[in-house]
Specification:
By secondary structure, the chain is α/β, with parallel strands linked by helices. The protein has 2 domains: 3-110 and 213-332, D-Maltodextrin-Binding Protein, domain 2, CATH 3.40.190.10; 114-209, D-Maltodextrin-Binding Protein, domain 2. The protein is built from 16 helices and 10 strands. A 5-stranded mixed β-sheet has the order 2-1-3-10-4, sandwiched between helices. Helix 2 packs across helix 11 (229-247) and helix 7 (169-175) runs parallel beside helix 8 (186-196). It starts with a helix and ends with a helix. 45% of the residues are buried. Residues 1-29 have low confidence and may be disordered.
Length: 334
């Protein structure tokens, strides 16, 4: 037996031992990487990581935060990350326009975006015409939400001036008085009022503008999923455990401790967490991928021009794989 052949045999034997021992599942020899935005919605993955739910199901996951959505989407497309918590409208644009073969495994239907103003004179959509409005990036998650909210008011996105402010800088810019209007997450309102000393007027909300829309999806590359379906299913089982853990009021303090730093005190993070749970922000016992909502987003993006002329909008059946959630739910069942 050659030295090289003996080495291969030893490596295969060791791999078999690790598999039998229930070692962490890996993809392409690497741990799986979960890309996340620095927002409250990411708490479910942070909790799964901190409480050990991923490792409980035999998979090793690195939780990685990105300040902006575009680099995170690019990282998923290139294979640098394996999971992405992404804007549903932006993902639908991406797969429709660029034919990136992504598939959604879990969804969060209820968007919490709002247009907030610290200027009493800018209290309605009409007041915003010609005004600067803070977003994350032109074409980014907050920008697309702004377009949807303005459209519901009968306005076009080009009727305002978008100011690109990376990540959570919208709230900080409003506190500092650099901008008066921005697209915000619900919990950012309290931070601005507490630290900026000015009340925030809610001009309109995403849920009011798009009551049948869909907010976020956990998406993966289809080829990576098919190559390592078991590991991806184990990650989903960890997320299911995390959402159930968060939904128990007895765990509120521990879950709030995993919130990405966004300027909230522990008490504020806990209050925000309970508020989000109250609206079913993270679906429990369901994958959150309702056909009607997602098909409404697809149609809306085609209507608004988010899907370019001549491009075929992605179909629901191609975009969604509900089998992974079902298998993960069965995996974690008693």
């Amino acid at each position: 037996m050659s030295k090289r052949f003996r080495s291969v045999v030893v490596c295969l034997a060791l791999a078999g031992v690790l598999a039998l021992a229930g070692g962490p599942a890996r993809a392409d020899g690497k741990k799986l990487v979960f890309g996340l935005p620095p927002i409250f919605a990411s708490t479910m993955a942070a909790v799964a990581d901190r409480e050990g739910f991923f490792r409980k199901h035999g998979v090793e996951v690195e939780v990685k935060f990105f300040d902006a959505s575009a680099p995170r989407s690019a990282a998923l497309a290139s294979g640098d990350i394996d999971f992405n918590l992404a804007s549903t409208p932006i993902t639908i644009r991406q797969v429709s326009n660029a034919d990136v073969d992504l598939v959604a495994l879990y969804g969060m239907p209820y968007g919490d975006f709002l247009i907030g103003s610290t200027d009493p004179a800018l209290a309605t959509c009409a007041d915003l015409k010609g005004q600067q409005v803070g977003v994350d990036a032109v074409g980014g998650t907050r920008s697309v939400a702004l377009q949807d909210m303005l459209a519901a008011c009968g306005m076009r996105i080009d009727e305002v001036e978008q100011v690109a402010l990376t990540g959570n800088a919208n709230a900080q810019a409003m506190i500092a008085g650099r901008i008066r209007v921005a697209v915000l997450h619900t919990e950012e309102v309290g931070v601005i009022e507490a630290k900026g000393g000015k009340p925030v007027r809610v001009v309109t909300t995403f849920s009011k503008a798009k009551p049948d829309s869909h907010y976020l999806v956990v998406v993966v590359r289809r080829d990576r999923l098919e190559a390592n379906r078991d590991a991806y299913t184990r990650v989903m089982a960890g997320l299911i455990d995390a959402v159930r853990f968060m939904s128990d009021p007895a765990n509120a303090d521990r879950a709030a401790g995993a919130v990405y730093p966004i300027g909230l005190t522990g008490a504020e993070a806990k209050a925000a967490l309970l508020g989000y749970l109250g609206i079913g922000f993270w679906p429990v016992g369901d994958d959150g991928l309702e056909r009607g909502r997602l098909e409404a987003v697809i149609a809306d993006q085609a209507k608004l021009g988010g899907i370019k002329p001549g491009k075929e909008p992605i179909s629901y059946d191609r975009f969604v794989d509900r089998s992974v959630y079902k298998a993960a739910a069965a995996m974690r069942a008693p």
